Amino acid sequence: MKAFLKNYRQAPRKVRLVASLLKGKSVVEALAELDFLAKRAGLPIKKLLISAVSNAKSMGIQTDNLFIKELRVDKGITMKRMMPAAMGTGHRINKRTSHLNLLLAEKVLAVKNSPKRTVLKRVSPRTVLK
């Protein structure tokens, strides 16, 4: 259950603020939080999360117990632009982009072993044939 977004036109530092809020949360909690978040990166991350959930549905996985295992924000390409400055010079402006990788996983409930376990013995093929 992966989804990725490449070359999103916002600096990784700003996108990581939103990503750190969502790590480890269930899909339902994350979608509810993104609806009321006042950050520009909220909408693209919400679309990315919906895409990952639909990928999980197509694989036949229950979406009720999915959670965000990993939401990684990496540096994308940097577009270099010039801003005119005094005396005919120019200052460089870096327009940074981000790569987002989202990984969903299922919550697994721990099952305690009962004290009365049945142990299966291995039977060799020779004893079966006799």
TrEMBL record:
On whether Cell wall biogenesis/degradation is a keyword of this UniProt record, the answer is: no
User: What SUPFAM superfamilies does the record point to?
Assistant: Ribosomal protein L22 (SSF54843)
The answer to whether UniProt assigns keyword Phosphoprotein to this entry is no
UniProt keyword annotations, A-Z = Ribonucleoprotein, Ribosomal protein, RNA-binding, rRNA-binding
Q: Which domain of life is it from?
A: Bacteria
- Can you quote a single GO CC term? cytosolic large ribosomal subunit
Tell me which family the UniProt entry assigns to this protein.
Answer: Belongs to the universal ribosomal protein uL22 family.
Q: What is this protein called?
A: Large ribosomal subunit protein uL22
Which organism was this protein described from?
Candidatus Nomurabacteria bacterium RIFCSPLOWO2_01_FULL_36_16
